[in-house]
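Project outcomes to date are best conveyed with an example. Our students and postdoctoral researchers have been running inverse folding experiments weekly, and each run begins with a structure described purely in tokens. The record below, which covers 176 residues, was selected by the lab manager from last quarter's runs and is presented without edits.
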């Protein structure tokens, strides 16, 4: 249980840290939250960093493309929500976040999976293993707490990543 708390704390910390980094410089992303192009290379990097972090905390997460596709289902709305949060776009943050969460939740349900998403934005130059680990340290506990509250045993991870206007937008999902 202690390892789960550490992993959750890490994932949540990463999410929050990434959210904090979104407030730093850089141009705007997709203000409308329209379609986005996934960056598979950065997705693979992000997933491997989360897997390594989880393993160092006693949790094994397998990469799952279907979970990654569920993250992608909410990516454009999450980009919009993050841009609103950073002041780079106008709109209703709660509505954009809810649309993203609904899309991701429906995609997971179609796979008979349950999970917890975490979203972040980094300046492109700040998208490094060290910064993702810092984010995981800061926010992992929250994610793990959400997983525990939902009685979800984390077994898989997926991610959707896009790069826009020198910003890297990341959505992770930790799922059963």
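After processing, the design step wrote out the following sequence:
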């Amino acid at each position: 249980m202690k390892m789960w708390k550490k992993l959750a704390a890490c994932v949540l910390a990463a999410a929050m840290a990434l959210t904090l980094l979104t407030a730093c410089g850089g141009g705007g992303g997709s203000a409308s939250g329209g379609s986005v192009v996934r960056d598979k290379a950065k997705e693979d990097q992000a997933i491997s960093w989360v897997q390594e972090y989880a393993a160092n905390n006693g949790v094994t997460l397998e990469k799952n493309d279907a979970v990654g596709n569920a993250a992608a289902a909410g990516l454009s709305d999450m980009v919009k929500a993050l841009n609103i949060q950073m002041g780079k776009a106008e709109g209703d943050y709660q509505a954009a976040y809810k649309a993203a969460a609904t899309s991701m939740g429906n995609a997971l349900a179609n796979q008979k999976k349950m999970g917890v998403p975490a979203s972040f934005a980094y300046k492109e130059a700040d998208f490094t293993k060290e910064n993702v680990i810092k984010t995981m340290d800061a926010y992992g506990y929250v994610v793990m707490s959400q997983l525990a509250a939902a009685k979800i045993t984390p077994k898989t991870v997926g991610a959707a990543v896009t790069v826009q206007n020198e910003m890297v937008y990341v959505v992770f999902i930790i799922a059963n």
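The beta strands are 62-63, 115-123, 156-164, 167-175. The chain has one domain: 2-175. The training component of this project remains on track.
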